[in-house]
Amino acid sequence: MQKRIGLLTSGGDCPGLNAVIRAVVSHATLTYGWKVLGIPYATEGLMERKSIVLGMHTMDLRGIDPLLNMGGTILGTINRGDTLDHASQIIQGYHELGLDALIAVGGDGSLSILHTLAQEGNWLMVGIPKTIDNDVALTERAIGFDTAVNTITDALNRLTFTAASHDRVMIVEVMGRKAGHLALQAGIAGGADVILIPEIPYTIEGICDHLTDLRYQWGRKFAIVVVAEGIDPLPGTTGCQVSLSKGNANCGMGQYIADQITARTDRRVETRVSVLGHIQRGGIPFALDRLMAAAFGKAAVDLVSQGKSGLMVAWQNGTIVSVPLTEVLAQSPRSVNPKDYLVQTAQSLGIYIGEPNAAQPAEPG
To answer: Which residues face 313 on adjacent strands?
Structure first.
């Protein structure tokens, strides 16, 4: 009897999701002869008993397969937090659709919810990690991360020229939640002078001293500062001091750092803030994300063929492995290790990346 495999994408979108869909569908149909049902909008689709039969040439345009290089996800996705309130309906949806297994593509939050549903509903489920934050534990890479790093790096390249033209300090706020992987890797690749990440404490004095050294010791009248959105304000300071006086109470940590630099230097340093926001999620996936999508998709289908469940495919030491979802979720989100080689690399390049002996940032109130 032909197996019916469900496939869904959940959580925030990112480049490479369609490439995962392509890999799962091709391997499942061509190798095993299974039917693959795409579940639109993740658990919402299960709750509403909706599915789309996915074939190798479902979206071909005169023989051209767009899934390999199309951003976003053709299945749609949701990241609302009330999923477990409808657990019984979602669980029943899996069974009423006649699914033999489910392949779920998500970050640690989505995979946690789906793993709970799978255990309660006796589903066979395999997870594939995706997130531009790269904070899913037990995998060195997740779908979407590499393309996001490239997108930020390109933005830093562009901003460097305008910063140099006007002798400005350009502050670039990037995503990542409470993990600094995006800021760290894109900051190094994009030639940043300062990188601030949640895992390493910093001081405004340290930042300003570094900017002063660049200007007077090395003749650099401009600078690029990369700020992870998840850093915390410093004790004894208030966020967005300058912007609040102008009636803007919705500024993020990039603006906070700009305001602190401005106040510390008595406005001698001219700053500008760029918040890249959802630009980091969009675009055509780069080669590495396409390769990871192909490898993850194949591995997930193979695990289903072996009757395995409660596992996530992962990239470790240059190869694909499978790891228990319980262990992944227990150790997520994965933070940057302050002793990581890339942190040491940034320091060796003369980048200010915080001060290990500084006071810890205050918890947000």
So the answer is: 322
